[in-house]
Amino acid sequence: MFKLYKRVWKNKNLRATTKTRVYRAVVVTTLLYGSESWVLYRSHTRLLERFHQRCLRIILDVHWTDYVSNVAILEQAGLPSIEAMIVKSRLRWVGHVHRMDDHRLPKIVMYSELSSGYRERGAPRKRYKDSLKRTLSACDIDVQGWSDLATDRSAWRCIIQEATTKFEEERITAANNKRLRRDNPTQTPTPHPCRHCPRICRARIGLISHERACRQRHGQPP
Q: Which residues cross the membrane (predicted)?
């Protein structure tokens, strides 16, 4: 990584497109090796996305003081998010395993159930099947009927391409909406009704002073 930093990322004679191609061919493939079988939590995905953004900002020579969003960085680099890459590789892998012969070990492991035993204390609660179901639901693929769709390799690849494209578009839309809400917060005033009269105060500090005066008017102890 350090050699790439000096020879490629900071090389002024190379175009940004060339740098991003090298990054995807060398760094991303190494980073996500075997990711189709990973069981990830949200914290793991955030760490991977953070590394992804840090590398792309170095390649594109974008500093954090430029206030460029993560979505804009991905658009400039022409690359999808790490989560979209993992989703695509996971769906391709389960389709490949489903089309295997029944005696193949990967298919036996994926479809088998433990006859005895229990999960040790402290072991991860999330299983690979749970991750797969969540991925299928996020991509609007039928959780119960995905295996029938995966039987045809060409059709399954088309479904994966459309599903991951839609998944990335929805992720970008959600990120843009989140950024918009953060930059333009709309504060909805919370009503603070008085417990002694019908009056409604806009702020809590006003409610406290009003209730003190209201109790005095009604002859109640402060």
A: 21-41
